[in-house]
Known about the structure:
With 160 residues, this protein is mainly α. The protein is 73% helix and 0% strand.
Amino acid sequence: MSLSRSIFSIVIAGWLIACSPAVTFAGSLLQDLENALMCKCDDKCGKVLINCTCSTSDKTRAKFTKMLESGLTVEQIIKSQVDEYGETVLSAPTKFGFNLTAWVMPFVALIAGGVGVKKIINSWVGKKQMTDTRDEDEIESATPGKYSKRLQDELDGIEL
């Protein structure tokens, strides 16, 4: 009797171990869906489905779980949601067509801003260097004899 219980326990343990990755895999697929799609609740919360806690998101999660269990892939479910709600259901724009600008424009703006800041800084530094050069030219153009003659004239004009 104890041998049959031991065998039964081993079979059950093996079955649980074999089934747990499937459950984990299904959970990761559901998380992939929740990250890829926006919540379409009535109050238009604008959150990614994984972050939404409304009742609509719970119903959507249950619907997606059933769809995954029926054998649909993540891509098929996402496509069905896009067909039903349009591209606004996606949490990130697609990387082709006009939507490509949503991916490219932030980098273009960053580079253009950097170039603009560099030009402004260079113009400020250029003006300072020109002012410093003028001051040096004025100091060099003033000969020591010119000031010493004037100083001597001023001292001679003072009566003691």
